[in-house]
Design goal:
The chain is of the alpha+beta class.
Length: 506
């Protein structure tokens, strides 16, 4: 990296600028925080605010180098070996202290001791590590993950994980026996007894899950406006872990808009936000969060101008969201991750960030940002120009000579030529949930095909079985079963006889 690239980088997780050599204590705090995380660089001779190269006197370079080496050697434990470099930029000398990610954490300041002298990097700040973080660093050194630890307060024979068992067997077609649980490392054998791991307790529907992990949940909220305040809707998702991502994703889809157009009988939809990217971000939040942290849950906040997904725990050291297409993979929960892969929640290692990146390319009006608010990681999907991408206003639609609605622009403001028959009519953008709420109280229990049929009936008023087959792309038997199910649910009515049979909303 050139000096110009360094100068133009903002202070953050891996870089800190100092006008002068900091005090012994401040230097050691930053050094151990970098060693406990992903490594980093301390740049001496550059003023941060405003950013300016001030330089270090050439005569003092060797003396300062020795001073830095001695401070780090004498005050940091375990041993940290920095690289110290000199850079000449237009006659001004800069010192770069490069600290590598440590292999024996936790690193701390000797005089303060482990409990009061362990520091971590949070964004561009250095903070004292809590006991939970210190324990996590200890496990990291031992190569042990929190989800692999046994729970001794309940034997496997006493644990209720029936919902996970049913889900696992339905998806994989494999019976979840004790042998399979052992292969998945979900149970631990100790002194002729079998105990569940933290991972299996998190996947269970047993009362002990609520007792040990009361914050292993997702708090979802739709706020009015652009800041937290008045709730439009909220939901707590505290089901077994393997169900949480899907339930949270449904909540988001319920509260974001979908634009719809028709070509013949085919309905084309485009979500207000990149739905695939949001789905992957939610999955990542569930699988990569730090379940050892107490009092912290996943939070999903939907505002008028953005969606925020916040997950407890720092970003894993080897992951860089600025390199999303690099196929990165670093796993915090080494027991849960293979289980999620077997259930199809994870498609393949390192694929999540790539899916987010690819989906974002289809949404130039949405910007993804990431940050670390405290001991947490947050992804924000933000509208670049809220006014430009608001739902349609009356000036977007006009009438033709026959009184039919004719679209001037597409649903996100781009010029578009469209047919003006009944399939080309433009309707205000809203969510499927909002449109179907007046006719059913069981939205979440409807299948995708049932929702498509009902949504089309809202627009066209009646449908034949042949038209339904085209809409849902299904064969006659499947279509007949779906229509029968909707009739039995008292949502639609069958009318006419023989070839004149058609269906309308109840």
């Amino acid at each position: 990296m050139s000096i110009l690239e360094i100068i133009n980088k903002p202070e953050g997780r891996k870089i800190e600028f100092k006008e002068n050599l900091p005090s012994k204590t401040d230097l050691c705090k930053t050094v151990v925080s970098f060693a406990n995380d992903a490594g980093g660089e301390i740049i001496i001779g550059i003023k941060n605010k405003p950013r300016k190269v001030v330089g270090v006197n050439e005569e003092d370079l060797v003396k300062i180098e020795e001073q830095i080496s001695n401070i780090i050697h004498d005050n940091c434990f375990p041993t940290i070996l920095p690289d110290i470099l000199f850079i000449n930029h237009k006659g001004k000398h800069i010192i770069v202290i490069k600290i590598y990610k440590g292999s024996s954490p936790p690193y701390y300041i000797k005089q303060k001791g482990k409990e009061k002298g362990t520091y971590i990097r949070v964004g561009s700040t250095t903070r004292l590590a809590s006991s939970d973080i210190i324990n996590e660093l200890e496990r990291l050194k031992q190569g042990v993950s929190f989800d692999s630890l046994p729970v001794h307060s309940k034997k496997i024979s006493e644990l209720d994980f029936s919902l996970f068992k049913e889900q696992f067997e339905e998806i994989t077609g494999e019976e979840l026996t004790i042998t399979v649980l052992q292969k998945l490392n979900l149970i631990v054998n100790e002194q002729k007894n079998q105990f569940p791991t933290n991972a299996l307790v998190l996947l269970s529907n047993d009362n002990i899950k609520e007792k040990l992990f009361p914050y292993a949940k997702i708090e979802c909220a739709r706020f009015k406006g652009n800041v937290p305040g008045d709730f439009i809707d909220q939901k707590t998702i505290d089901v077994p872990l393997s169900f949480q991502a899907e339930e949270a994703y449904k909540f988001v889809l319920r509260h974001i808009s979908k634009g719809s157009t028709y070509e013949s009988v085919y309905r084309k939809d485009r979500w207000e936000y990149p739905a695939i990217a949001i789905r992957e971000a939610i999955r990542n939040a569930v699988i990569h969060r730090d379940y050892s942290l107490k009092g912290k849950d996943i939070k999903i906040a939907i505002f008028d101008d953005k969606i925020e997904i916040t997950s407890p725990g720092k970003l894993m050291p080897t992951i860089d969201f600025n390199e999303m297409e690099a196929g990165q993979s670093d796993i915090r929960n080494i027991i849960l991750a293979p289980v999620f892969k077997k259930l199809g929640i994870i498609e393949q290692w390192g694929n999540g960030l790539l899916l987010i990146s690819e989906d974002l390319k289809k949404y130039p009006e949405i910007k993804m940002e990431w940050s670390e608010p405290g001991i947490a990681f947050r992804i924000t999907f933000k509208k670049i120009n809220v006014e430009q991408h608001k739902t349609e206003n009356p000036s977007d639609v006009s009438e033709d000579k026959k009184g039919r609605m004719k679209e001037k622009t597409s649903y996100y403001g781009r010029k578009r030529t469209k047919k003006t028959d009944i399939y080309g009519q433009k309707r205000p953008i809203t969510t499927d949930y909002d449109r179907l709420r007046p006719i059913t109280a069981d939205y979440d229990r409807l299948s995708i095909e049932e929702k498509k049929i009902l949504l089309f009936l809202l627009d066209k008023e009646k449908l034949t079985k042949k038209e339904v087959m085209k809409i849902i792309n299904a064969k006659k038997t499947k279509t007949k079963e779906l229509l029968k199910s909707l009739v039995e649910k008292n949502l639609i009515v069958r009318k006419g006889k023989g070839r004149s049979t058609y269906y309308t909303l109840k």
